């Protein structure tokens, strides 16, 4: 470990003052929220909803059970909906499930998926097993 780097890194103050712990909501954050809530000059809240996958292979069910009961449907629906809705995007991260879906998908579905990736409507970020 390079102690000189660590000393410099700590001086960078990359974390905002209001983040005191790894907790997402503590009393300091609550006070900050309440003061901002009553501030008439606060910026409007902007909410961004980004559909994405989160499938844990083998967490509570087997890999196969997850694929059959959930994951296959998620990928089938994503391909269908992304084709229909022009402004929609989706992020997929579990490569093991994508690989299994790809192996079983009809060639027309594969082509659609490739087209969606090329258009930037489906982003594959890797991850998972």
Beta-strand fraction estimate: under 5%
Write down the Rg: 21 Å
The number of helical runs is 5
Arithmetic mean of pLDDT: 83
Which secondary-structure class do the elements indicate?
A: mainly alpha
Biggest sheet statistics: 2 strands, parallel
Number of strands: 2
Oligomer: single chain
| Residue windows where pLDDT falls under 50 for at least 5 positions | none
Order of helices and strands: HHHEHHE
Can you list the strand order of the major beta sheet? 1-2
What number of domains? Answer: 2
Helix content class: 40-55%
Shape field: elongated
Question: How far do the termini sit from each other?
Answer: 30 Å
Describe the overall structure.
By secondary structure, the chain is mostly helical. Helix content is 50%, strand content 5%. It has helices at 3-11, 27-37, 63-84, 95-104, 107-119, and strands spanning 90-92, 122-124.
How is this fold's topology laid out?
Layout: H1 3-11, H2 27-37, H3 63-84, E1 90-92, H4 95-104, H5 107-119, E2 122-124
What would you say about this model in short?
50% of the residues lie in helices and 5% in strands. With 129 residues, the chain is mainly α. It has a two-stranded parallel sheet.
Structural key phrases:
129 residues, mainly alpha, 2 domains, two-stranded parallel ribbon, elongated
């Amino acid at each position: 470990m390079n102690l000189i780097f660590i000393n410099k890194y700590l001086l960078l103050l990359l974390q905002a003052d209001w983040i005191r712990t790894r907790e997402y909501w503590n009393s300091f954050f609550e006070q900050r929220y309440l003061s901002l809530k009553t501030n008439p000059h606060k910026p409007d809240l902007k909410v961004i909803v980004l559909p994405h996958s989160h499938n844990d292979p083998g967490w509570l069910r087997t890999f196969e059970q997850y694929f059959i009961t959930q994951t296959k449907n998620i990928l089938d629906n994503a391909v269908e909906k992304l084709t229909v809705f022009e402004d929609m995007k989706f992020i997929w991260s579990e490569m093991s499930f994508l690989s299994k879906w790809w192996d079983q998908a009809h060639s027309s579905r594969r082509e659609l998926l490739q087209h969606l990736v090329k258009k930037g409507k489906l982003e594959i970020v890797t991850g998972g097993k």
